[in-house]
Design brief:
mainly alpha; 219 residues
Length: 219
């Protein structure tokens, strides 16, 4: 009964390595092959940088909401780290801000949570309906085209509703954590979605005063 020793294993790796070298020599070390390899490397690097940036921003946003929830004694701050539940945590922080100012407390947590979930489902359903309309253009003509455009516009509208509600909550939170005009500046900057996590994290470093009036003191 024969065994598979280290020398046989070495021969297998040698054949595999030689095969890879042959592929590179035949297909890559040409002008077209080099260009394709460079483009592939650039695309991979860009994708990796984008993924890391998205992860960093997600951590910053989650940490900011978590810190604010703890400072205001909102329920379940850990939900700030979970997708979709993050909207619930943001809403709970907003409810605490309204409570501190003796404003009518609305169910911001549940509203944001269900709007975010409904937004995803709604966009998927409307996108499928729009695709079906495009497929029937040959049969129904302009009616199918108008239907597809209508469903696409509805999908855009449904997708922005959670974001609009989030901006309303952020304004209430910034107003509670910072005095004017700093709260206005933070809110305007947060309108730039790419840096919204930064503004949320900045706001979380301040402890709101016990009263509704704000003091320019950092924690």
């Amino acid at each position: 009964m024969g065994g598979f020793g280290p020398f046989e294993l070495f021969d297998v790796f040698e054949e595999l390595f030689n095969g890879i070298i042959d592929i590179f020599e035949d297909g890559v070390f040409t002008v077209g092959g080099i260009v394709a390899l460079v483009l592939l490397l650039v695309a991979g690097l860009s994708s990796m940088i984008g993924s890391l940036t998205g992860l960093v921003f997600y951590v910053m946003y989650s940490l900011g909401i978590h810190r604010m929830a703890k400072r205001l004694d909102a329920c379940h701050p850990v939900l700030a780290w979970l997708p979709f539940a993050q909207y619930f945590a943001l809403g709970k922080v907003t409810e605490k801000c309204d409570e501190r100012r003796d404003l009518p407390v609305k169910a911001w947590g549940k509203t944001l949570l269900w709007c975010s979930i409904g937004g995803i489902v709604g966009v998927l359903v409307l996108s499928v309906l729009a695709a079906l309309c495009y497929l029937t253009i040959g049969l129904l003509g302009i009616i199918s085209l108008l239907g597809a455009l209508l469903f696409e516009l509805l999908a855009v509208a449904v997708s922005v509703i959670p974001q609009i509600l989030s901006f309303v909550c952020l304004w209430k939170i910034f107003r509670e954590f910072y005095p004017s005009p700093f709260n206005i500046i933070l809110f305007i900057v947060s309108l730039l979605l790419s840096i919204q996590p930064i503004t949320v994290l900045i706001a979380s470093f301040r402890t709101p005063s016990p009263a509704a009036e704000q003091e320019d003191v950092f924690a």
